[in-house]
Here is the input.
Amino acid sequence: MRSDTKDGKMIESVNAIVRISHGMEVEPAIHSTLSHLADSEVVLRIKEFCLWYGKKQTLFRISMDIPKGKVTALIGPSGCGKSTLLRSVNRLNDLIDGVRISGDMLLNGDSIYAPDVDVIELRKRMGMVAQKPNPFPMSIYENVVFPLRIDGIRDKRILDEVCERSLRGAALWDEVKDRLQDSALALSGGQQQRLCIARAIAADPEVLLMDEPASSLDPIATAKVEELIHQLRGEYTILIVTHNMQQAARVSDFTAFMYMGRLIEYAPTGMMFVKPQLRETEDYILGRFG
Amino acid sequence: MSVETVKTEEILEPTLPSQAPRGLKRYVPLSSYGTPYLWLMGGMLGISLTMIVGLLLLILVMGSLTFWPQKIIQFETVDGKRYLGEVTRRETYKPSREQVGELPELYREKANQFLESRQGISERFLVRTGNYERTNTHFHWVSDFQIQNSTYPEWAFVWERLSWGRFYGIPVGFQVDGKLFTEGLQESYRLFRQHFPDVQKKRNKIYYLEKEVLGALNYKMEQARLNVREKELKLRNATGERREALQQELQKANAEYSRLKENLEFEYGKIRAQIETLKKETQRYSILMQVSDGSIVPLPLATIVRGYPANQLSWFEKVLVYLDRWKEFLLEEPREANSEGGVFPAIFGTVVMTLLMSLVVSPLGVIAALYLREYARAGFLVSAVRIALNNLAGVPSIVFGVFGLGFFCYFVGTSIDQLFFQARLPNPTFGTGGILWSALTLALLTLPVVIVASEEALAAVPNSMREGAYACGASKWQTIQRIVIPRALPGILTGMILAMARGAGEVAPLMLVGAVKLAPELPIDGNFPFIHLERSFMHLGFHIYDVGFQSQNSEAAKPMVFTTTLLLILIIVVLNLVAIFLRNRLYRKFISREV
Here is the structure.
């Protein structure tokens, strides 16, 4: 019978995943087509990265290279560790008590987790956009130039220029140029999220981290944000977490599929969504679980 | 029938519910709707509101009626006595046989019949008859069975005076320089109105000369004397060459002092003479009043504050008297042991002390809360500190007063006196109660409120906001300073509002650390250095206690208690409204447009 076959397939693939997650000694069935990149093409190199919350391990030996000027999407079911991985890049996980890591990440060749790294300087080299828009309680203008303000830059000319450039970059300039001194909290949700993107690109980051940037927005605002990601491609290296597969397919150049703290498959988006190499990936992409 | 068939049926019709369709009139327990609980909640709220609103209404009504001019009634009793005054209170009671027995024989029978017809219950009136210097009492009780007749004399006057309380009578003449100038009701009232503004003006001038001019002279003299004393003290401790230099300085200071003293004494004499002439001029006029026992008494205009023919006033004139009394209450100094006059020094003291307290407690509380919430690692110590804070909020306020007296006044204050104000010893400067020590004591008292509220406000700042700042490369301090504090500010202000309301209404500790019955000087005035934090001050809360329970003329002071309470509540409301307005503005700015 038809349903029988389907069930059987499902059980088989889940078994495979369970095998991966429980057998520590077993090498995960990673399939990566991106292992041949040269140093100059890579902005962020993740090397054998593991992470524990207290005693619970949530990331298992993740290795991947994020190519320069491209959009890389992290997909996977809830709780698979994709947000944790993203927050590990700018070391936001440091703020949580009881987090331990092993392995390392390299940002343009500089170690992120070396003992002598100044976390504050490190974070200034990256931009981040959170799941829910988090504008600061100040004017639109001050929100955008916040990264410069904390660097002690007071030159009005520089600030004005950065503000305009970033807002234009975030496709928000035309909507807010007449009310830059208004509170950022008065903007709509979609505008707030684009404002956060403007803030994230204000300091010219080497990599832009986006944690489900459209998950709290309505479809129209989502479309705008996705369009913006399209525009930013090439200029910025973007690492985006999403649990929306269509979104990943639409906006990204490369896609990494994570499951239960492991990187399962990592490939160009076109290839990934047309012809995934592993059954687990295919099952997830086709919506058989997750 | 096999099991298989049943299964297929189930699979075929999986959507059909197995139960019978639900009716609309099913039995549902009342408790599941929560209606009884709703009633309970509403009832509880109602009870609380009734109590609070009732108290406020009582204070509002009683407090605002105090200054409304009453009619003057004249009771004539059967034993031939007359009582002229305002009825302040009425009550029913059961008079004893002896009371009726005191009546003249002729009326005894009539009174007994009167009482019998009312089951032995009589109504009596408390009449404010004033004229204390003649009768030795401000009030008289008059029972209904004693009354022969009662009238509202058309020309009955009530006079409010600088001393001895009110005076009731009917004007019959006007005296100038002790000689009868004119007779007749209307003519004497006309003359009173003609001369009274001038007398008032002169009296104000006298007040100004005595208080401001002589006060400033005294202050100058005292400063010069302190200068000499300081030099003397320095000389006593000095040795060798310095000694000689100091000796010279002392001589100079001494010369300066005697020169100044001579000058000032001359000026002093001049002003004294001026005051004397003014006083003599004001004392020229008196209005002759016929009092209830028929005798005629001269009432010097110099002693009168205000007077009006109570039974003739139109509604508009009554309003004028009412407003004039409020003006006096709000802007003038108290007289007659606080039971008359105004409460301006108390208002001033309360507001200055409350603001001073907020100025001390807010940075202290906010900074402590910042450390507790943002920096301290959660653990045993932090929990212990929190528990201690909450316990501190439960300590009786008088204990804070005792602590303030012991620590601030006697320990810190005495040390300051030893170090900086040695010249003034043995008179303490800071080593006694004062507005600064009161503010600090109340700051300590309200500190837990501010810390707890600030901590809550800091905890309410969304983590996503902090992470956003960290992700931009902000340091912890930058995040706190630029994001967390502005965002938490409305909540912090809420804490301050609570603290201010509590602090402004607190009395017990103030009795120990600086609030006094009568403060000769305000804590802020025109003498250098303008703000005198060491001075004791008057406080509305303490004023209420003093007027209500320490006053000799407690019956007359009772309405003042209500009025002062009303005023204190109004001041707290105003302070709160300002703070709430500020908070809402901040809220709109930092949190959300909708308030």
